[in-house]
Amino acid sequence: MSICQDFGLNFQHRMFGNTCYSNSVLQALYFCRPFREKVLEYKAKNKRTKETLLTCLADLFYSIATQKKKVGSIAPKKFIARLRKEKEEFDNYMQQDAHEFLNFLINHINEIILAERNQSTLKVQKNNSGENVTCNGSVPHNTEPTWVHEIFQGTLTSETRCLNCETVSSKDEHFFDLQVDVGQNTSITHCLKCFSDTETLCNDNKFKCDNCSSYQEAQKRMRVKKLPLILALHLKRFKYMEQFNRHIKVSHRVVFPLELRLFNTKRDRSSEPPTPAPAPPAPLVPPPGPVITVDVTVKPKKEKKNRKSDDAVNPDRLYDLVAVVVHCGSGPNRGHYISIVKSHGFWLLFDDDMVDKIDASAIEDFYGLTSDIQKSSETGYILFYQSRDASC
Amino acid sequence: MAVQSDSGGKDEVKTQFVTREGTYRLMTLSEYSRPNRVGYTSGSGSSHVRVSLVSLPPSPGVGNSDSQNSDDRICFNHGKELYVYVYRGVKKAADLTKPVDKKMYKGTNPTCHDFNTVTMTADSVSLVIGFSTGQIQLIDPIKKELSKLYNEERLIDKSRVTCIKWVPGSSNLFIAAHASGQLYVYNEELGCGSGAPQYQPFKQGEGYVISTCRAKSTRNPLYRWLVGDGSCVNEFAFSPCGANLAVVSQDGFLRVFHYDTMELVGRARSYFGGFLCVCWSPDGKYVVVGGEDDLVTVWALAERRVVARGQGHRSWVSVVAFDPYAVGFEAEAGDSHCYRLGSVSQDTQLCLWDLTEDVLRARGRAPLPAAPAPPLAAPNGTVPRAEPQRRKHKEDAGSLTQRLAGFSFGDRRDARRSDGRAGGAGAAGGAAGGGGDALRLMGTAACPRFDECPVLEPLVCKKIAHERLTALLFRAEYLVTACADGCVNTWARPRRDRPERD
């Protein structure tokens, strides 16, 4: 363990029950600098509040950040105890899904911040309540984005073209992470491209066209319109298999570069990925101009102000890989989670209360398996990419 | 041979594919691998299977070319092993029982190798081999007398040898690139000295430093080239004339040097991630690179700019190569010159690309910063293959949708241009810094935005293996591919036009 003495801040959360799913995610989040700084800032600002999951997290991050010893481990007892109170699914000693935990944690923290803000501005809110814009529920009452939004939230535009009347309607959805299907011997770039492939809605899955006032066949495509500061990518490696009546791990080899740009951002048509040559239905070509776009979502006010163009705000945003949550084993409720993070230019591997410095080239051990026979594997499960303009 | 139809399952491994010039067929009997497949394990981290091919001069005594012996020798590595066989091409089945030479190493893996074509004779050839632990070995697989070691004590460099090649036209100089980001020039006749080499700077420029070895008597290495900020050099390639050296690194840069003057001639930046492979066009005008952005990127030497990107692979591109024998495929396109490119990837697919004059000339519309003098020749009548959609914007303003798209497109373009200039101002003066300027290079000739550069689609894109592909060579009558499980395959070119002419 002496190996990591040079880097500082390499405290691990000591294993406590079967909690590596949370350890690995917390470890990764700690090394997402914008997130860590905001959590520590919260800790500094909020001295007296009652215990929430966020105060527990802030205490945990604070105790790691202020450790005098270079290396050691901390038991996140208080955090885990609080977590079990907050959500009954986590109230046991079973292995949990790290992505479900991440999803819960980010949303929950966001709700805590919103609730606290609403409390403190209750009177002001009452006066202006008429102006409040409601949207799909993730942002209640207050439309100002929280720091959780500012860090993790991106926007997807789903464009649907009715095959009857050719009207294109688009709808924006916010996300905290993107969940992508994995293919054998592919790259995360390709998986993200597939995520944006045109999908035909037909049969039982027809689209209700407002223009035709009926259910019609349609083509749908999802593209990224606002790129988040930290792009969290969840590789869908647990697939439900009907014949086994349970989830099976997909260990496919999916390479992920240390540096990433997205191809599936919303920009002018010339950048569209080439459509496969024998494409029976005409490719969906949505108009980029807002003129004939039928907007069916009610967006937060800020969103509207910024909409000078329908293109992505910064489609060339360059990301650096900062942390990876790795799943080891053969199924979602068994196996083990570890994390690899970048700290001060070095890559570190955290395995509950152990830490090792690893070479960047060793990351390839976590891409997955090219053979489909073995079911157990150590594979990248959640990737955290941080925008380079955030780190300089 | 069971012929699989192309309409079969998408993930089937193909044994043939069709292009304009005809059908390429896998020669199932010409598969080279280790002699004995017992105890065969795939994967195990040894993905760097490389292939070297050499045609020895015919021996004066044996005039009969139809004899059992072929003049071609093939070398490939797999895991700890290295094999040299007589290569019988497409005419005769591989005989795996009698390798010319085989080596098995302990504690280290061979990673790359190269035959010396200057000193070879009918019964002797020098083969230089690089290893995963940094050492270099020189052997003669035919005569078996020669065996020299360089960097044996790893005093020169401890990191993996990533690429090794003889200097073109030289009987005794070779260059080894390492994962440490350094290239070393060796003279095979010299020793490596007993101590660690002391260096003194010899020449330096933007993003590179060249040093010589300071010693009483001349010793290896003669020169050390530090390229970039210490990121792994993944491959290098000499231009066909031998004057220029193209180097690609994990820092995402292609750097082209004039070898003799050691001047940086130009550079390009990947869209993102490292560049993994590099190759020159047969006429030395273009450099093609592939990398972790899943793209094939073409860079023009004269203009020092990225002129096209190929999108079609589903994973990282491990080898790119120009097909030097592909002249004349494009007969129907009139006098327009056409380059044929091939690429293989970790996605187990082979892609072939046509790089047409139209694409290479259709650049006037996007003047990018740092491009010396963009030729403004308007694209002629033929439709550039790469951009059917953009053509549409211009020519048929049929539907409302398209016209609107056209307007929006124009606005966007202007915005981009000013963006680009602002962003590229720092880089306009040429090379700047190491790997930290990816943001500043975006929108310049070294790294155009994605829609500022023609995007090629592959002519064919076929899954041809179960494992990651790691090698691709073009020969007059066949292609050679290799994949990570150590199998080297030969694909016969279409026979269509040759019998007609002869």
Structure description:
The complex is a heterodimer of chains A (392) and B (502). Residues 1-10, 129-140 and 268-309 of chain A have low confidence and may be disordered. Chain A is built from 10 helices and 21 strands. Chain A is globular, with a radius of gyration of 22 Å. In chain A, a hairpin with a 4-residue loop joins strand 8 (207-209) and strand 9. With 392 residues, chain A is α+β, with helices and mostly antiparallel strands. In chain A, strands 5, 11, 15, 17, 18, 19, 20 and 21 form an 8-stranded mixed beta sheet that branches. In chain A, strands 7-10-3-4-16 form a 5-stranded mixed beta sheet, with no helix packed on it. In chain A, strands 1-2 form a two-stranded parallel ribbon. In chain A, helix 3 packs antiparallel against helix 4 (77-86). Chain B is mainly beta. Residues 1-9, 371-435 and 498-502 of chain B have low confidence and may be disordered. In chain B, strand 30 and strand 31 (478-483) form a beta hairpin. The two termini of chain B are 28 Å apart. The interface between A and B is large, with 43 and 49 residues.
